[in-house]
Amino acid sequence: MFSKFTSILQHAVEALAPSLPLQEDFVYHWKAITHYYIETSDDKAPVTDTNIPSHLEQMLDILVQEENERESGETGPCMEYLLHHKILETLYTLGKADCPPGMKQQVLVFYTKLLGRIRQPLLPHINVHRPVQKLIRLCGEVLATPTENEEIQFLCIVCAKLKQDPYLVNFFLENKLKSLASKGTSDITSEDSLKDQGALSTDTGQSSQREELSGATGMEKTELEDEPSHQMDDLSTSLDNLNVTSLPEASVVRPNQDYNLVNSLLNLTRSPDGRIAVKACEGLMLLVSLPEPAAAKCLTQSTCLCELLTDRLASLYRALPQSVDPLDIETVEAINWGLDSYSHKEDASAFPGKRALISFLSWFDYCDQLIKEAQKTAAVALARAVHERFFIGVMEPQLMQTSEMGILTSTALLHRIVRQVTSDVLLQEMVFFILGEQREPETLSGISRHPLRHRLIEHCDHISDEISIMTLRMFEHLLQKPNEHILYNLVLRNLEERNYTEYKPLCLEDKDVVENGLIAGAVDLEEDPLFTDIAPDNTLSNQEWLSSSPPTTPDHPKTDGKTEVHKTVNSFLCLVPDEAKSSYHVEGTGYDTYLRDAHRQFRDYCAICLRWEWPGSPKALEKCNLEAAFFEGHFLKVLFDRMGRILDQPYDVNLQVTSVLSRLSLFPHPHIHEYLLDPYVNLASGCRSLFSVIVRVVGDLMVRIQRIQDFTPKLLLVRKRLLGLEPEGPIIDHITLLEGVIVLEEFCKELAAIAFVKYHASSTP
């Protein structure tokens, strides 16, 4: 038996012999550090005056060299020594005491390089993640300290390691009962967070009796591993005598210590050093993206992350001037949260409040990107916090105020962040904030059910043209966002039952009318008294299109209950009477110029709407509730009202109103197409459509033309001035009406192009 034991021991010695000098060297450097604390009497000298930094660097080099000389994943004797003798725990204690002065910095550097340069997984070892967890608590306790740079480097390397192996984050979710752990008491790794991993690591300050997670290997004892007991006793006494007083914490209040890695990063985001703050934000970005559900829950429920994001948004928003030029808000350069650097002296286009505006937009961009990258449940919680604490708590009172300057500035800021948001989850919360969550059809008496929605839509028809234009622009950009609720809430929910139509079942005598391309009861505009003066050659023939009408196919017969596309196109092109047209006098302003833009925009809208699974054809009238009273909805009501006043409104307002309506017309939903682009829809009594609104405008125009002397020459002159073909001259009488006529003509051409493009797309297999 004894000879067998001797043989085993001999084999062990032979196996370890080649690496013995390296291990001796490692132990020598560590003992040199411990001897300093045993023998020194002057603990006030800075650490840079000692050999400690050199010894730590040598220890690190030895560990790297040892790993390089061994097979992948094999733990060498030097690493075994570091783990078994809890060297990292000892270094943590020395760093916390910062004795000698500057030791904390050296410890942080050692931890950072150890985790960064050693390839094998170290964090699963209890004698690694336990001291790492303790060291994390020391980071960010005091802002603007000399160790901030080392602190953030250390925290970021831990975040990077967790990103590589997300399950390791469970080691950093501590039990709530240990909320006083930051005072130096022992830690308990959260049982809830580890039970799913099938292992529970406990830390009571004593050696763990449980097996460590993946990566832990068996200890091999050698003579060199056994420190002389009197030396260890001396070191323990020396450490006990160190003045380990708690440093004053930063002003961020920590409700508990569940997720100290997040808490330390949150504190460092407040650093006066912008580089430190950005690195801290990057670390948080890595942590929120971890897929572990327990970490996501802890992140949002047990840390100040939600509060930090929203409180900083609120404070930066409140720091903005009461009045900022909307053009400055719109045109300030694109903001990237990581590049928030601005020098007023170097900026030739500086304006009052630009620094504050860039800071706000930069932080909003960070919140947006953080939520975009976050794990799903964390993203929802963060976005809801922004909704409740910032949108409702801070922005809504500004948007609901009565001061015109305040309304204009707050709407311009809302418009800017609507354009800027990219996260689907945050966009959803923003949409609910602006429009509410209602999806049932609107009623005239219930349009103020969501006060902010009602107020913003009312602002589209505000007495201030600037407020009207800005609010309309905000809605225009909102409609371009990839969110189905936007269009449904504003328009579609009121068109679902098609109760804007009057249903007349076809009788035998109607068949010949349908064969001629008209629905029974529809009005042929070419026979309407308003259009009797239109010459036949003013309409477009099939040959004048960019291409002929799409060919008839079995799937798309020539007559399918709708007017043929050329009749629709000509209906819009013929709306404006000949004497009120001026585009044919100017090159490059024909109807065909709108086709290319309409095709591109329609393609983009189709891509956005593809996943919303809209029907390809209108809901059958037999299945619609046509008895219900029709209300076009608050949004379309305001747009139609403004469209009806196009001859009496400023040019810029008209451009914005028609721009929003053309955006709506582009959506590939059959009910929107029918309601906005079908001139021959059989409207129910008391209902109006976009076409009927324009018809009334044209009727008013034809009466008013008769009262204006030299109408056509004046109209042409105004068009040329608007195009920059004529210099500005004396003010022309009736300028508002003349500009309105030009916008009306262009809008009709645009609608004709959209109708043609949509028909062509639906007819192409």
From TrEMBL:
It holds the Pfam family KELAA. Residues 632-724 form the FHF complex subunit HOOK-interacting protein C-terminal domain. Residues 199-208, 541-550 have a biased composition (Polar residues). Transmembrane segments: none annotated. Residues 184-236, 541-563 are annotated as: Disordered. Belongs to the FHIP family. This is FHF complex subunit HOOK interacting protein 2A isoform X2. It comes from Trichechus manatus latirostris (Florida manatee).
